[in-house]
Sequence to fold (203 residues):
Amino acid sequence: MIQKLYPKNNPPEVINRLVSSLHDGAVMIVPTDTQYALACHALKERAIERICRLKGLDPRKHHLSVVCYDMSSISEYAKVDNATFKLMKRNLPGPFTFILPGTTRLPKIFSGRREVGIRMPDCPMLRELLAQLHAPLMIASLPLEDGEEEEYLTDPELIHEKWAERVDLVIDGGTGGTEGSTVVNCTQGAAEIIRQGVGWLEE
Fold:
């Protein structure tokens, strides 16, 4: 199934249906402010395991990322010191992933690395979902398989054509990007950019 969403004025019944599906453990493909991504309710461990299988991720070796609605919810799922809090406030919402120590509010599947990637994308339709979900989303970028052109990642119709049998829903939020978020490690004191992506960090 594919569901069109707009930056604003989406019918409440559509948002409610999507939120209900996430609470029930659905795996979706959603737009962000960078690329389209696999997504599920971040507190539903079976849905997270399903995404890990789809991407071939080992949660003991790879950072898992969650999308939060605001700074208050970030502090529930990650440990944020004062300097990092100020840095994040200057740059979020935006195309960044901040690596932070996780808290015990996250499911056990996150405990392998004891760290979590935190995102707050500047994507109105995704933020509308989060506002109603009252929980974070776990997300993972779509894998680019051998021989595939990056353009396939930008077109929700092509994404749906490929992934319809593997996910429960694709959200069509218009043309997506091909470059990922900028990843900032904040676990070792001073913030360190470990991958430069779309976002340019304001320090």
